[in-house]
Design a protein that fits this description.
Elements lengths: L4 E9 L4 H11 L3 E10 L2 E9 L6 H12 L5 E6 L11 E9 L6 H11 L3 E9 L8 E10 L4 H14 L3 E6 H9 L1
Helix pairs in contact: 1-2, 3-4
Length: 185
Amino acid sequence: MSASKVVISVLGSDRPGIVAAVSRVLSENRCNIEDVSQTILQSEFAGIFIASLPENLSLEALEKQLQEQLTPLGLAVLLKPMHEAGRYAPSPSEPFVVTTIGPDRLGLVAGITEVMARFGVNITNLRAAFRGGSDPRRNVMIYEVDIPLSIDQQAFRRALRQRAEDLGLDLSLQHRDIFEAIHRI
């Protein structure tokens, strides 16, 4: 079965050349990379590629070639067809950045994201760095979110601030434009 687009997830210990290895296999198979996001979490590489497949290439054939090339490098690969139908259709929203700082403990991400989910706030990017201990500067979460215009903005802010307080976190909520302007300086 052939898919017009495929999502490729690659995980493994970080080292130079991972993106080059993945993109070489895709190029050799005439797959066009349309989107890619990769990051390093502690010492682990995590990459997600969205690529279009030529009509004569099956998902299974591409997966086999990626496995053959990447498994010897200690990388795990997962392929999934990308389906356009049923795609999440966001309501009109504004981009914000939520930052929390505080001592590390179980349930921080779950607590904050539960409030976001309850109000229909979509997380578009999340970066959390937990370095342990009680030094709050060593434990930071930055959520880039889209807040729907249709929700009760004040109720959302109150609920988010209350949850942060309950978790012992300092919380900042800024429009993304303001956040970017401040952090450019």
